[in-house]
Amino acid sequence: MLITDTGRSYLSLWVGVAVVVAAVAGIFLYYSKEAPEKDPSGKPYLRVVPTEAKLKSRLSDIQYHVMRENGSETAFQNKYWDNFSPGLYVDLITGEPLFSSLDKFDSKLGRPSFTKPISPDVVMEKPDNSFEMQRIEVRTVRSNSHLGHVFSDGPPPTGRRYAVNSAALRFVPLESLHSEGYAEFLPLFRPAQSPPPSATTPGTK
Fold it and tell me: What is the pLDDT of residues 55-64, one digit of tens each?
């Protein structure tokens, strides 16, 4: 059967359409599989916890080792131990704010150290008797990830030292809080206003 020029044109058109559809479908499937899913709570910064298989592929070796295998980073050789810029430290997996730079201090031990979490509801503490030591482990509530340990040798006002692995965190600088959906935490970084002086009636003390 002879194929006319018109037939060849239609065939080429349909082949082109099929290629475009296949490419779009491939891109959609790729991003639907790889992009973190938003949490149903409606918080713009929160993401659901993916499957372990997805975490294994998304996290670096040290991130997975720390967060899912209760590992530890090397002191003074981690991302945030000497970072003192203003901002939030959030869960690497879910994006939930865990610690604030306002509560960070230099423990001289080469790890990010905080006097308290941003809220007691975002972390949990549990006994850790590994390596023949008695410690208190700190984990995230939402993603159940290992963060580090808490000790009772911290500075005032809490007297606590939350020693956290950088690999479990992502730092969101103050200037990026609004654009990344963390605007509700901006008031934390505004200086407290002094109350106005009390009014006095002339001639009275």
Answer: 999 999 999 9
